[in-house]
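Example (one chain per record):
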Amino acid sequence: MTRDPGFVVSWPCRISARDLASLIVVLALAGLSTGCASRAVETRTASATDPIVDAVTAKQQMIAAVDDATELLGGVWTARTGPDAAERCSLPDGERGAHWRYLTGSAIEGRPEEDGSAMAAHWRAQGKRVSARDTSTGPVVFGGGGGDIASISFYAVSGNYTVQAVSLCFPGDADRMAEDDADEVE
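Predicted structure:
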């Protein structure tokens, strides 16, 4: 009877370049999938100062904020995501809620630096907290608060302007809303 020695590694062990490359790819994919999974849970927690609104009001206020921004900039704008894309969020009391996300874009050339400054001033005049960043492709302006939306952003890249807003968090189940929308389409 022969005995199976099992898995034996002799020292020093040798790993081929091909095996090492395969190991690196597997570890990288595992890291990426973990990162994606951790981002999918919740996108925002409502602050205690955010008013509690219903789904219809939240959507109307978000659309109005995007329309206000795009009218200031002019040009032709096309919805890229939403405005009826529900996502999970947490209400101030910790309960599960939902919010809407709306992304619109335009191919206008514009004047990125001037348009970024004008948008920041416009949102400050509305009582929003504003921060602006300069990037290698153009300015990015973030706005939040003001009681009507959770956040809004403007990316001023010549030929690819975008405005994105997230509504206030409202009581509801984003997953169920998505299922209901899917049922309506069928």
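Caption: The chain is about 35% helix and 30% strand.
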